[in-house]
Design brief:
The complex is a heterodimer.
Chain A: H1 10-19, H2 22-43, H3 45-88, H4 90-118, E1 130-136, E2 142-143, E3 146-147, H5 150-157, E4 161-169, E5 176-180, E6 188-192, E7 195-198, H6 202-205, E8 209-213, E9 224-228, H7 229-236, E10 245-248, E11 252-261, E12 272-275, E13 286-288, E14 290-294, H8 300-307, H9 310-314, E15 324-329, H10 330-367, H11 369-381, H12 386-423, H13 435-460, H14 465-469, H15 480-513, E16 523-527, H16 530-534, H17 536-544, E17 549-555, E18 565-566, E19 569-571, E20 582-586, H18 591-594, E21 599-602, E22 616-619, H19 620-626, E23 635-638, E24 641-649, E25 664-667, E26 678-683, H20 688-702, E27 710-712, H21 713-720, H22 722-756, H23 758-766, H24 771-805, H25 816-843, H26 846-850
Parallel strand pairs in A: 7-12, 9-11, 20-25, 22-24
Antiparallel strand pairs in A: 1-2, 1-14, 1-15, 3-13, 4-7, 4-14, 5-6, 5-10, 8-11, 9-12, 10-11, 16-26, 16-27, 17-26, 18-20, 19-23, 21-24, 22-25, 23-24
Chain B: H1 6-18, H2 24-35, H3 41-54, E1 57-65, E2 71-78, H4 80-97
Antiparallel strand pairs in B: 1-2
Helix pairs in contact in B: 1-2, 1-3
The chains are: A alpha+beta, B alpha+beta.
């Protein structure tokens, strides 16, 4: 036993001191200490310490109640004084509440957004046992798509897999059209691309809510189809779709057996669900996702290890040993493929904007400390303790932050619909349901109040009564270092956001203006269908009879987003070890001509030379990749088909500019024509409505059973960069808010400085100083601050944007001028409030300011 | 008229019994020994505060004591009102027990 005890835990005593009133604290801590020493002496220090903690925690509620009870009168007084202060300094109070409200509104919105992001796929009852099968490529890239044969093979071998389902995205590789024939009215027909084939365990695995129909029997029949509620409305209006027939591609009737609702926070979004007719046990094509439901008792690390080598085990792929099979929990799928970064970025932004608002409060409260110094002095003389004063000021800041919260809730309510359209989400307060919402809001008020109030409280309560009660106000530049740092920090954040916004927009501009290497002007995309495909040549000739139709071809995908890869290519002199990776285009004749791609060597496919169906055109990158010196005339084998390279096309952007241009092979082999999905028609810029009508009439006369849908090709390009456009927009809003709150703060500070120096300005004016020199005098200080803020923000902004630009294979340079622009902008915006205040002070009549001296 | 709660009664009796030495530690010790149960300090204070507020006990603060980390003790003493309330409880007890046997009858 130690002779000298350590004494009771100081943290616990401290806690007691904060909560209990001073009177209670004294004897309570005495009693506790006495008991503590006794226990320490008889049962040991360790036990005593535990006892002490326990007793303190247990007695806290009682003390808290007591403390409040005894202090009611004082608290009423605090409230009264706080209210009077607000009334006296209406401007400051307004700036503070508005700033805090905007900051909190921002924070609440971003929290809701993040909550929604984190909640993705959490609604499934089996959420903890659902996994996505993934394949890790040799370069460590995780591929969400796995061969169709993988899941059934794994399920056969491993009893750990209770259920599995593939989602065969049929609609994205083949034309799907549906027709509903209501009684006595014209048929309703559409093309659909979200058509999926799934395994029978799909509904037992996922908890999608059935609005109509029975989940157990819905997919028993291969002629059944389950549709989403959106599709149900599209085809059936208000009728009950159950039991009605949808005709698929004019050849098969599918009976609707269920209507489901898929929440917007599901990463699996399906419109048409049909049973997969085949087990596809030998289909090693690699395109779509597969999900498994694992036994809850399975040790995940063991299971992952067991399946890691399964590609090599089951398939006869070349270099299969380089690929690793893995699983990813369903709840992480959404975040894992790109969203996590955004969650991080926005959390940081939310925090910073709130911080800027808190800093405003700190600065204004300390700047106006002179006004409160007398009150503090008097309170101290009357016996107030420093801790009580700290509590008073903290209470005030919490009070203001509560006001701010009330205001921010109104703001959030107003802008929520706007945010929802911007982010295409359905955010509501119900995301933080029940008690958690109140806890969150309460915590927010408390945190904001404490963060913004703690420094002013310490600062204000520290003044010595003798100083503050002496008539002179000698508070001038005390502690302005803190203010300096915070204002600089505030502006640094604003400049950072402005420069980031500028870079995002510059990159957007760059990718939208960069020549793609082909032309989509006046090219129309028409959905192809089996009837049209069968009579394609005749259809094409008929179209070309119109002089305003310049070219007609067909392809599998739009040329600017043709993200199909294959390794089924061989050429003379290929390294047998190499597993090649090329993109390809399956098309009809005249593809290269329709898009006006440039040929650098050889020729394109010619309709008059039938042998061309076995020939290939490749791009420059492919020439480099294959190491061919004289590419034209060389032999190439594509998907087992021997042919000759007849031409080389200049590199063009076949995928969005995030990705590099890869080797590319064009084939017009009719064996692949079933993959064709679109007719591309180049038209003359004259008389477009007539041409469109002609196309429509021709298509309908050739394929009367199918709908006719078309769009202009260049419209789709913008959609490739939707995420970036959205990011740019959101960034610009945040930048605006940050600079707005910062300006509120600097406005308040400037007005305060001007007020403090009223007399000085008066004397200067009496002595003949011109207005301009006084304005300069007052704004000089701020200018230095903002300059410094810029110098801090630039390297951070440069680094962050450098990182972001790495997402793009083709990117704009980081122009230093951009940062200078952000700096100048911040200057101009900050100059408005500063010069307003300075001018006001400089133009005031010196007689008023000096009269009382 | 509201009667004393059992806890209040127990603490009042302890304070009475302890006479001049009734403060937090001793009261808690005494009541703990009498009832054979663990009384947390918070629970004791809670009741003591209630008694003080009702005016059943008066308090007096001692000089700081070194053994207690330099803190003073708060002594409690029963007021006249306190004694009256105790009387009240005692007579109530007597009245409700009147005519009942000491031990509960055995169940048949």
């Amino acid at each position: 036993m130690a002779d000298k005890s350590q004494g009771p835990p100081s943290l616990a005593s401290c806690l007691l001191k904060i909560i209990a009133s001073a009177r209670d604290y004294d004897y309570a801590i005495g009693d506790l200490t006495e008991n503590y020493e006794y226990i320490a002496a008889t049962e040991g220090e360790k036990k005593a310490r535990r006892w002490f903690w326990k007793e303190v925690m247990k007695s806290l509620p009682g003390f808290m109640k007591n403390a409040l009870y005894r202090r009611t009168a004082m608290i009423m007084n605090y409230l009264k004084i706080a209210w009077r202060n607000i009334l006296r300094n209406k401007l400051f109070a307004l700036i503070n509440t508005l700033g805090l409200a905007v900051g909190m509104a921002c924070f609440i919105l971003i929290t809701l957004w993040i909550q929604d992001e984190l909640n993705f796929d959490k609604f499934h009852a089996n959420r903890d046992a659902l996994y996505l099968l993934t394949i890790i490529h040799p370069d460590d890239v995780m591929d969400p798509n796995v061969p169709y044969a993988l899941a059934p093979r794994l399920a056969d071998e491993f009893p750990e897999i209770i259920h599995y389902t593939r989602i065969y995205e049929y609609g994205s590789i083949a034309t799907c059209s549906f027709k509903y024939q209501p009684d006595g009215s014209p048929p309703i027909r559409f093309y659909e691309n979200n058509v999926n084939l799934v395994d029978s365990s799909f509904f037992p695995m996922f908890s999608f809510r059935f609005i109509r129909g029975n989940p157990e029997t819905a997919l028993q029949n291969p002629n059944s189809v389950v549709i989403s509620d959106k599709i149900a409305t599209k085809y059936f209006g208000h009728d009950n779709p159950l039991g009605k027939a949808l005709t698929f591609n004019n050849r098969q009737d599918l009976v609707v057996t269920g209507v489901i609702n898929i929440p917007s926070n599901s990463s699996i979004q399906l419109d048409f669900i049909v049973l997969l007719p085949d087990r596809l046990e030998n289909d090693w094509n690699w395109r779509d996702p597969s999900y498994v439901l694992l036994d809850k008792n399975v040790s995940l690390p063991d299971f992952r290890e067991k399946i890691a080598g399964s590609i090599q085990k089951y398939s006869n792929y070349q270099h299969a040993e380089r690929f690793r099979t893995d699983v990813l929990p369903l709840t992480q799928v959404y975040l894992n493929f790109g969203r996590r970064t955004y969650v991080y970025i926005f959390s940081v932004i939310a925090f910073f904007i709130l911080l800027i608002a808190c800093i405003n409060y700190m600065n204004l409260a300390t700047a106006s400390s002179a006004n409160r110094a007398r009150e503090v002095g008097l309170r101290k003389v009357m016996g107030a303790k420093r801790s009580e004063l700290i509590q008073q000021f903290l209470g005030e800041s919490i009070f203001l932050s509560a006001l701010g919260l009330a205001l921010s809730l109104i703001m959030v309510k107003t802008v929520l619909p706007l945010i929802n359209t911007l982010t295409s989400k359905q955010l509501t307060f119900s995301l933080l349901h029940g008690h958690f919402l109140y806890l969150f809001l309460f915590g927010l008020v408390l945190a904001v109040g404490l963060i913004s109030g703690v420094y002013p409280a310490l600062f204000l309560s520290s003044s010595r009564p003798v100083d503050s009660l002496k008539a002179s106000l000698n508070f001038k530049s005390r502690r302005s270092a803190f203010r300096l740092v915070t204002v600089i920090g505030q502006f640094a954040i604003s400049v950072l956001l402005i420069s980031c916004t500028a870079v995002v927009f510059k990159q957007l501009n760059y990718i939208q203006k960069r020549p793609l290497g082909f032309s989509t002007d006046h090219v129309i995309k028409v959905q192809i269908n089996p009837t049209l495909l069968n009579r394609f040549n005749s259809y094409k000739d008929k179209l070309l009879q119109n002089p305003n139709i310049l070219n007609v071809t067909a392809g599998q995908e739009v040329p600017y987003n043709e993200d199909y890869k294959t390794s089924g290519v061989e050429w003379d002199g290929k390294d047998p070890e190499l597993s090649p990776h090329v993109r390809y285009t399956v098309s009809h004749f005249d593809y290269i001509e329709t898009f006006e791609m440039e040929l650098v060597e050889g020729r394109s496919f010619n309709r008059d030379s039938p042998a061309d169906i076995n020939n290939y055109v490749i791009n420059e990158e492919a020439v480099r990749y294959m190491g061919l010196a004289e590419p034209v005339g060389k032999r190439l084998r594509f998907w087992g088909n021997n042919g000759t390279i007849i031409g080389v096309v200049k590199n063009y952007h076949h995928v969005p500019l995030h990705l590099e241009i890869m080797p590319h092979v064009f084939t017009i082999n009719p064996g692949n024509f079933r993959w064709l999905r679109y007719v591309f028609i180049k038209i003359a810029p004259e008389n477009i409505p007539d041409t469109l009508r002609y196309i429509k009439e021709t298509s309908e006369s050739y394929a009367p059973d199918y709908p006719h849908e078309y769009s202009f090709l260049d419209q789709g390009i913008g959609n490739l960069y939707l995420a970036e456009q959205r990011l740019g927009k959101i960034f610009s809003y945040f930048a605006f808010l940050a600079i707005f709150i910062s300006c509120l703060g600097i406005f308040g500070l400037a007005s305060f400085t001007a007020e403090k120096r009223t007399k000085e300005i008066g004397i200067r004016k009496v002595l003949g100083a011109p207005v301009s020199s006084i304005v300069l005098l007052l704004s000089k200080e701020f200018s230095w601050w903002i300059l410094l803020a810029n110098i801090i923000a630039w390297p951070i902004g440069w680094y962050a944007m450098h990182k972001w630009l790495q997402n793009f294979a083709y990117r704009t340079g980081l122009n230093p001028l951009l940062f200078v622009f952000a700096g100048v902008l911040s200057f101009v915006i900050a100059a408005l409030p500063i010069s307003y205040q300075s001018l006001k002070a400089a133009l005031a009549d010196p007689v008023d300011s000096l009269r009382y001296e | 008229m509201k009667f004393l709660s059992r806890q209040e009664e127990l603490l009042l009796l302890s304070i009475w019994k302890l006479g001049n030495d009734a403060y937090g530690v001793t009261i808690r010790q005494h009541v703990g020994r009498m009832t054979g149960k663990y009384w947390s300090i918070g629970a004791v204070y809670d009741v003591l505060d209630r008694l003080t507020r009702k005016g059943l006990v008066s308090t007096m603060t001692s000089e700081p004591v070194k053994a207690r980390g330099g803190k003073s003790k708060r002594y409690y003493r029963i007021t006249k009102q306190g004694f009256r309330e105790l009387e009240e409880v005692r007579s109530l007890e007597k009245r409700v027990w009147l005519g009942l046997p000491e031990a509960a009858p055995e169940k048949k």
